[in-house]
Each structure stands twice: as structure tokens, then as C-alpha cells.
Write a sequence for this structure.
């Protein structure tokens, strides 16, 4: 039986958490990575160890989303100052920013910016899908402000950051400075198999 992350799963909350994710169903291979992340990216140690954020990269299906939600879940435990933890797909953020430029938009770019800067921990999933430069620019200002305010950001990406092509793909959605900052703390899931394939079989 994999170890349970929390005795009372009902009370920790991740805003926008994908419905498929179950805190008690992270495969054991992912629990190793999660334990490693928890050792230096806990709420108490994050700023000391990862002021600029952390990037988790590797091929599709290698538990990047799952382990980052696991870390988010350990942050989101209830308490007197329960942190706000939010999950956000990068492509959906790009769509939101794109529609905010319209005159009749329900939400302004400034509102999106405020909403994305607010969480104590933001999990930005699937970075690296090509973004229009002006939308990426807005995302970059969000990342910068999060760093300035000492708020934690976990970036997940399928871009293989040990290849030129992967780095190019990643920076097409933000910029090279963002990647440089994240390079201080990059975790890869290359050694893991594709769990999506295993689950589909
Ligand atoms: N905690 C979990 N609860 C339910 N399914 C899980 C969990 N962890 C992993 N899986 C399964 O493994 C697959 C791959 O994990 P995922 O985190 O989506 O990989 P990646 O983000 O690297 O593509 C998921 O699509 C899901 O089917
Ligand atoms: Mg994923």
C-alpha cells in the first residue's frame, strides 16, 4: 500500500485541481520524487532553496502533474494560515489572456494578473506550448511579480530541457531569462515510464 499523504483528504484544497488526481494514488515511483521535493520545497524551505521557482521536466506521462499536485497538497494542509494553492494549465492561461485583450472581455488582463499572482503556490502545468509574444509577455510579468513577492511557482513541461530543441520550445512560451532562472532548480522525470500508456492498457 502506498503511504497516505494525509489522514483527512477532504480538508486540503487545491484550486482547479484536475478531477482525476487522487492524493492516495500517486504511483510509488512518483512518491520517491515527491519525497525528494518535499525535503527542500516544503513551505518552510521553499524560499531558501527555490526563490525563482522550480521546473519539472520530462516526457509525457511521467508523473510531472501528479507529483507537483502532491507537493501542492502538502502545502495546502488546513491550519490557521492555510496557504492558497492553485493549479493552472499554461495553455488555458494563454487563452484567458488572449480573450482579455478583447474590448467586451469579462475579465481584464489586470484581473488575470492579480488572480495569478495571489496564490502562495502556483502549479503551472504543461508550459512550452507556443504562445503569442504579447500573451507570453503578460505571463512573464506574472512570473516576475510572483518572484518579487516571494510566492512559489512550480512549472511543468514536456519540453526536454537537456536538448537545444526542448529549450527553444520552452522559451517560445516565455523567454530565456525565465528558463535561466529556473535552471537553478530543475527536476527531471526521464527515468520514469509512461504511466498514461500503462493506465490506458
Ligand atoms: N495520483 C493519481 N491519481 C490518479 N491517477 C494518477 C495519479 N498519478 C498518476 N496517475 C495516472 O498517471 C498518468 C500520468 O501522470 P501525469 O502526472 O499526468 O504525467 P505527466 O504530467 O508527466 O504527463 C495520469 O494521466 C493518470 O492516469
Ligand atoms: Mg502533465
Amino acid at each position: 500500500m502506498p503511504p497516505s499523504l494525509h489522514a483527512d483528504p477532504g480538508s486540503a484544497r487545491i484550486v482547479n485541481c484536475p478531477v482525476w488526481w487522487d492524493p492516495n494514488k500517486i504511483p510509488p515511483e512518483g512518491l520517491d520524487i515527491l519525497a525528494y521535493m518535499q525535503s527542500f520545497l516544503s513551505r518552510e524551505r521553499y524560499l531558501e532553496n527555490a526563490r525563482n521557482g522550480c521546473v519539472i521536466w520530462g516526457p509525457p506521462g511521467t508523473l510531472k502533474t501528479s507529483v507537483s499536485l502532491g507537493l501542492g497538497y502538502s502545502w495546502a494542509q488546513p491550519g490557521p494560515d492555510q496557504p492558497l494553492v492553485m493549479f493552472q494549465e499554461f495553455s488555458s492561461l494563454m487563452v484567458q489572456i488572449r480573450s482579455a485583450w478583447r474590448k467586451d472581455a469579462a475579465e481584464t488582463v489586470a484581473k488575470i494578473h492579480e488572480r495569478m499572482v495571489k496564490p502562495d503556490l502556483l502549479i503551472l502545468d504543461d508550459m512550452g506550448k507556443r504562445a503569442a509574444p504579447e500573451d507570453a509577455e503578460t505571463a512573464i510579468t506574472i512570473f516576475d511579480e510572483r518572484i518579487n513577492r516571494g510566492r512559489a511557482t512550480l512549472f511543468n513541461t514536456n519540453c526536454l530541457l537537456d536538448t537545444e530543441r526542448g529549450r527553444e520550445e520552452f522559451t517560445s512560451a516565455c523567454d530565456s531569462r525565465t528558463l535561466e532562472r529556473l535552471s537553478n532548480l530543475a527536476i527531471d522525470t526521464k527515468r520514469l515510464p509512461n504511466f498514461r500508456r500503462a493506465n490506458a492498457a
Notes: The two ends are 22 Å apart (CA to CA).
